[in-house]
Write a structure and sequence with these properties.
It is built from eight helices and 13 strands. It is α+β, with helices and mostly antiparallel strands. It folds into two domains: 120 residues, 2-Layer Sandwich (Beta-Lactamase), CATH 3.30.450; 135 residues, 2-Layer Sandwich (Beta-Lactamase), CATH 3.30.450.60. Strands 8, 9, 10, 11, 12 and 13 form a six-stranded mixed beta sheet that branches. Strands 3-2-6-5-4 form a five-stranded antiparallel beta sheet, sandwiched between helices. A hairpin with a 5-residue loop joins strand 5 and strand 6. Helix 2 runs antiparallel to helix 3. The longest helix is centred in the middle third of the chain and has 19 residues. The radius of gyration is 20 Å and the shape is globular.
């Protein structure tokens, strides 16, 4: 998955995050400058592990092997004395890649010191780093509690798209049922509903229903599902609170979905 050489081609890795921990914040709050393939909940967990080390040192590099992958983290103070943290998720026990990650960190650090905008930093990271795409998914639907589908991305099939409104009502009914069962617990999930050779995986959060039509579940796909939920809610928080019926603003989320999933066409299913 990763490349153990020192050339500056695409670095293939499981995930990356670029953070700024604010010096003047009494609680050491952080801003996410760039993130792909990790997600904010995992970032928070990683920072909790490293918080003492980061607090007591000006700069450093650490590695933690976990069950599924390895965390490589490097941090340093910028000119404003804020702490910049770069987190990588790499293959488990892939020690040969550490020198490459260090070189990419130097490249990112140089970009930060050149007074680039956040959009420029994001573009530099996108150009330098590639995460794997998850397969095994044929559709994604984002549905309001009322049953209105506000975003969908499916394989190219007119007949399936015509069924979207029916799907929205169906999932809304499931959402109401799950609320009764789980007493409306915030962030609850109705995990899986089997339909022959496919399954619906449904995550409910903030009164919004995220439904994934899956042919084959994998750890990567499952991790990305939660990341996509958080990204959508973060990006469209205001639009969801004040929904006016305009669906066009959600279309740009296609680009984010394409960073994580390969939506399989029917002839690609195994």
């Amino acid at each position: 998955m990763t490349q153990g050489n020192h050339s500056f081609g695409k670095l293939k890795i499981f995930g990356v995050a670029l953070l700024k921990i604010l010096k003047e914040s009494p609680h050491k709050n952080f801003n996410v400058l760039y993130e792909k393939g990790i997600g904010v909940p995992m970032i928070q967990n990683i920072l909790e592990i490293f918080k003492s080390e980061i607090r007591n040192k000006i700069q450093g590099t650490s590695v933690i092997p976990l069950e599924e992958f390895t965390i490589f983290i490097t941090y340093f103070e910028n000119d404003a004395k804020d702490t910049i943290v770069i987190i990588y998720l790499d293959e488990k026990d892939n020690t040969s890649n550490y020198s490459t990650l260090y070189l990419y960190s130097k490249k990112i650090r140089k970009a930060l010191s050149s007074d680039n905008s956040l959009s420029k930093i994001a573009q530099i990271c996108d150009d330098a780093i590639e995460i794997p795409h998850a397969k095994g998914i044929t559709g994604l639907y984002v549905i309001l509690q009322s049953g209105v589908i506000i975003f969908s991305k499916t394989r190219d099939s007119v007949s399936e798209k015509l069924q979207s409104d029916l799907l929205g009502g169906f999932i809304s009914a499931l959402f109401s049922f799950s609320e009764q069962v789980i007493n409306g617990e915030s962030g609850a999930k109705l995990k899986e509903i089997n339909f022959g050779n496919q399954s619906f995986y449904t995550i409910t959060k903030n009164n919004t229903i995220f439904t994934f039509l899956v042919t084959k579940m994998s750890p990567l796909l499952q991790r990305y599902m939660y990341i996509i939920v958080d990204k959508f809610l973060d990006k469209y928080e205001h639009n969801l609170k004040h929904f006016d019926g305009d669906l066009t603003r959600f279309h740009e989320f296609n680009d984010i979905v394409d960073q994580y999933f390969i939506i399989e066409k029917k002839d690609e299913e195994k």
